[in-house]
Every structure is written in C-alpha cells, then in structure tokens.
Predict the structure.
Amino acid sequence: MKVAILGGDGFCGWPTTLHLSDAGHEVHILDNLSRRWIDTELGVQSLTPMDSIQERCRIWRETTGRTIHFHLLDLADEYERLKSWLSEHRPDAIVHLAEQRAAPYSMKTDRHKVYTVRNNTNATHNLLAAMVETGIDAHLVHLGTMGVYGYSSVGAPIPEGYLDVEIDTPSGKKAQEILYPTRPGSVYHMTKSLDQILFQFYAQNDGLRITDLHQGIVWGTNTDQTLRDPQLVNRFDYDGDYGTVLNRFLIQAAIGYPLTVHGSGGQTRAFIHIRDSVRCIELALGDAPKSGDRVKIFNQMTETHRVRDLAEMIAGQTGARVAYLPNPRKEAAENDLIVRNDQFLALGLEPTTLAEGLMSEVVDVARKFAHRIDRTRVPAVSGWTRELGAKVDRDPEGKSLRSAS
Amino acid sequence: MKVAILGGDGFCGWPTTLHLSDAGHEVHILDNLSRRWIDTELGVQSLTPMDSIQERCRIWRETTGRTIHFHLLDLADEYERLKSWLSEHRPDAIVHLAEQRAAPYSMKTDRHKVYTVRNNTNATHNLLAAMVETGIDAHLVHLGTMGVYGYSSVGAPIPEGYLDVEIDTPSGKKAQEILYPTRPGSVYHMTKSLDQILFQFYAQNDGLRITDLHQGIVWGTNTDQTLRDPQLVNRFDYDGDYGTVLNRFLIQAAIGYPLTVHGSGGQTRAFIHIRDSVRCIELALGDAPKSGDRVKIFNQMTETHRVRDLAEMIAGQTGARVAYLPNPRKEAAENDLIVRNDQFLALGLEPTTLAEGLMSEVVDVARKFAHRIDRTRVPAVSGWTRELGAKVDRDPEGKSLRSAS
C-alpha cells in the first residue's frame, strides 16, 4: 500500500520508514526537517553521525533497490500544499509522527511552549481537515504518548484509551465508557491530549478512520533495517532535552559520567524498544478501524520500570555511579504504573526486553560513538516552572550550570 | 480594578466592557477586530447600526465621563506584543472573549475550520504562556460553552464542569471527580474543549487562577449601558452563521419570514440573556479561585428550551409561521437537557426570563431595524459534512440556495 509518513526524518520516523519500505510498501516521507533545525538551535547533535535525508534515501535505494520519496513540507504552516499533496497522491495510510516530541524542550521557555502548541495542534488539525476536504479514505495512525493518562494512578491498571465508569443518575447508577480522563504533565504531553479531542471529533463527524498509539518512552537505536549500512543509522539523542531517560543512562555509563536521576527516581514509566515501536506501527496499520468506529487506541509499551531501578541496574552492569539531583519537572515523586497492552500482544508483538537488549546498546552504540559526546549538553536544565529550573544549578560533577551555555 | 477585555469589540465583549466600566473598573479592550472583518467576508452586517470601536469609546466617554482604552492586538499572532502589553499594564483580571464563536462559521469550509482552531487555540495558549512568563497575578475569566458537554445526556443533570464517577479497581470501587467527559459537536465547540485542557494544565503547573464559564446560547441585544445612547447599541446578528437561534426567530417574525427550525426542533438548548451574561462575568470576577485551586467552572445559563417550543411560542405571539427544514448539523434529533447553575444563583443572579424579555426585543430591536435586513442572508447553509450541506438547497420560501451567493 501507499503510506505517507509525516515526520519520517525523525527518531521514530526514520526506522518506521525503512521498516515499511522493506515490507514492500510505497513510502513517502513528508517532513519539514524541524528536528535538524532544533539540533542547530540547541547546539547538539545526534550521537550517531547522521546524513541528510536525501543521502539516507539514496543509500537505502543503493542497498535495497527500494525507493523512498521525500517531500519537504510543513504540516502546520502549509495547509494548501498539504491538501494538494494528499489530493494528488491519495495515500492508503498516513503515519503521523510530525510533532515536537520532547517534554523538556516544550517547557524550556515561553517561546518553546508557544512553538510546541502551535506546531503540534495546527499540524494535527490541518491534517484532519485536509483528509476530510480531499475525501481520501486513508487510515490515520498517530503517535501519542502514555503521558496523556497522567501518572497519578487510580489503583487500577491503565486501560487502552477508554475507561469504564459508573455515574449516579436519578434512576440509579449508569455504566458508561469514556475517554480516559487526561492529566498531561508538560506542554508537550498536553498537545497529545488536545490531539485526542481532535481525533474524537473527526472520527464522529466525518467518519475518519483513526488509530492513536499511546507510546511509552522509547529506548534503543537500531532496527534490522538501520543496521544494513552505517549511513542508515538512526539518530541517538543524549542531551538534557531530547535524550530519553534510558538512552541517557547508557551514554552516561559509556563516558564515565554519573547516571543522573532527578528527584527520588521513584517515578515509574513505561518503556518500549525502537524495534518494537516500529513493529507496533506496522501492526496498527494492518488493523484499521472502520469508518464510523470510534478512535482505536493502543498502549504502545512493553515493560514498566522505576527510574532508580533502571539506574541501579545499569550502574551494576557498568560500574557507573548514580547521582540524585533536584527534579526540574513538576511531577509526583513516586508512582505505581500498571498498564494494559493486550491488543498488541494479541496481534503478535514479541517484545525486545531490556534484559536482552541493553548491553548491545552500550557496546554497539554508546561506547562506539563516545568520542562524539559533548559533556556540557548532558545535564537536563529545562525547568517546569522558574523555581524548579533554578534548583538545577550544578551538574552531577559539581560544576555550576549558570555560567555555562 | 484594572481589567483587560480580550475581544471587547464583540457581541458579548462590548456590553461586558460597558458594564465593567460603569461599575468603576479601569477597562482595556484588546481586540484584533476580526469580527468586523468576518462581516466583510460574509457580506453581512449587524442589524443594529454599529459604529467603529474608537467612536463607541468616544461616545461612552462623552456620555459617562469614563474612559475605555482600546488596543488593536492579535492575540493568536502577536505573542510578543501581548507579553509586552501584559508586562506594562499588569491587569488584575483578564476577561477572555477573543475566540471565533460561531459553530456554523467554523464548519463552513476547511479554511474556516483551520482558521477557527488556529485562532482560538493559539489565542488561549498564548495568553496562558504570557501570563506565566510575565508573572502577573491576574484572574483569568474565559467564556466557554455548554457545548463542551455534548448533548447526549446520561440521564443526570449536567453538573458545573466536574463529574463524580466510580471506577472499578482491584481493591473495590473508587470514587473520583473528573472533568466532565467532553463531546463537542462542531469545530468551534471543539476549540472550547481544547481550552479546558489548556486551563487544567496551567492551573496545575503554574498556579494560574482561572474561571471557565460554560455559557448557553445568548439572546437579547441591549443592557442598561448600551441603551444610554443610540450609538452605544450592541451588535445583533441574524445571518445563518452568526445569528443565534432565538435572535433569528425574532428577526424572522419581524419581517414576515418563516421561523426556520432545522430538523425536528427537538434539540433542547440552554439560554441566557445578554444582560445576565454580562452580570455573570462580573459575579465570576468577584469570586476568583486561589492559586493552586483547580479551574473554577460555572454553567452560565438560566433556562432550557426545546427549539420547536421556542418557535411555536414566538409564532403564537407574532403570527409568524414555522418552517421545518433539513438540518445541516450533525447532532441528535432530540435530546433532554437538565443543567445545574446553582453557583451563579447563589452569588445573587436574578435571571431575565424569556417570558418577560421577549416582546421588547421584537418591538425595540427587530421591528425597529427591520428595514436593514438582507433576506438572502437569513438561511443557514453551512453543512457539518458535505452531504448534510447539500440537503439545505432551498430557502423556506422555496427558492433555490444554489444559484444565489
């Protein structure tokens, strides 16, 4: 089938693109390359040396004989071009990964908050309006986040998107199924909560077929496809804004930097390997809802861990020390997290576990490219409020962070 | 106190401005005058002859000696100017009415959908981000809509914003209070559902003090203040996009046009007179939440009626006939609606009822300005989907709507 991958140049987008191309689909990347611009803004770069998108597509064609089409397009700002593109190419499916995806970046300054809401909300809504207007019957698969649920558990496992509740009425208790009450913890997460409302409306009013994937924290770097050539390597972020917690621990261990745990480390989070993330997107594509159905929601995660347990595990395997630092985020210090992911397991997902995948990441990625690391970019400094940001004033080695940057 | 009224040139904004100025507050209007531009776009005008905002402010000063400050500013597009303005003027309260407010307009074409989401969401979020960044401690009062609740009643009265539910957990049933599950019926209503999530986040993360008013359909034209001079008159919209149902019936009756009921007229809606709307905003301003409180939500309505009952009542009083037309909206044909509004009643609101206010509207407004009506602008033609729009092909007098415009 013909698949448009919006944000196909990003961390999840690139391996998804290769995976679907490898499976024989006609793949089109639509991307404004904003993630590369943000690298420039922040003065950071992927740990892994990353070629231009045009060059990556060329290498893939040389290696496999398969073509990936690249279209430079800004989803949030170029509504008319988006509509023309959809109208001309009429894809069978659209994978929407074109949102600013880092919570710390979204909380960095007011400019970053404004950018994140403007980019993410307008991108998603432009896409929905253009799908209706062009009358294409594409299945939309969107990457959401586990963060829409919030992390103050009600003491029951988190269901896949919808919650059964009972309401008091004059004629007795009445059972009802509702969208899980959202409680996002950052501006980034909030945009995914907004997306849910957009999806609900367009599925109901226009019969759009939509799947929303509530993804956990992604770890790992490569998939079978990105390993086919060194120049196909996926990006790997280790900086305080874009690096996800587990990848940051791995890199910190590789360069003898303390593993930075913010707060008590009692935060429990859901995780998934990039290999499984890509596979889940493929499974979701093959399991489309019908027009008129409600939005189909999957929890896209495979295991949950407490942050401090992860740090201690990696410390144990590598000899790194763990540094407990002030938490720049406004969040519960400790939480439990039990998540249902029955749907993907039923569709045949076989998870890559942390236990089996971890050391290959340390050896094949983190140590291999350790010479490219800029230690000054490792601390996480974006505060959720001005007061919380001010508490993070020293790096784990004791150096002031205020004079730097 | 110093109050900023965002959207102070609009239908609710202008009488709110006068009411608060009359009460002795220092009032600043911030408005991009978009509603006047939309009049131009649609080729419609207020039934009542409406002067420029500058002229209206001048008349008010001549009449009362009080000054209303006007600032031309686009909330959605001029973030930096908004921030500078807040930082310089540091208002004690902000009344946010600066959103595109017509459901039919929001569904007119894809361009109108995109505009409505872009304008409303960016406006609200820019305001929240700027309030945090400037560190002002203003109470934000926002005009929302009853439409966020949706109209498929669960059989219990609609509470004020929050719903008590019970959830099954492994250790038994657990009671929880949640934001009422939203089910907006148009792109316009959807933007108010998005606003709710923005408010929840900023109240929680930054301690902003926020009140959200879930308003019913406003009817009526004038308040004590707008009656002080003919040039202070409020706007009155009767066209198919901006005219609200009851005001449209009044105008139709005044010019001998059939009262247009779309569908069975079994839709039950909540109503409030503009006089009470303005008074509610004042009451809400005087009842601010504390920093750290959740968003305070009021239902701002005073009575509920079935649309066909309203039509029959006005037909009975005026001799007009009722025309039942295809419904261009996607909505339940019939619904019950019982709404709680205890909070405003407790604060002393004394509602203007339909029974007492209706005939003065017909005589003092509708008949008085009937010569200004363009009959071709009366039909409601914006369809919720292309199919629904196509069904509305004749006006109630039998003339084709397709050849017109």
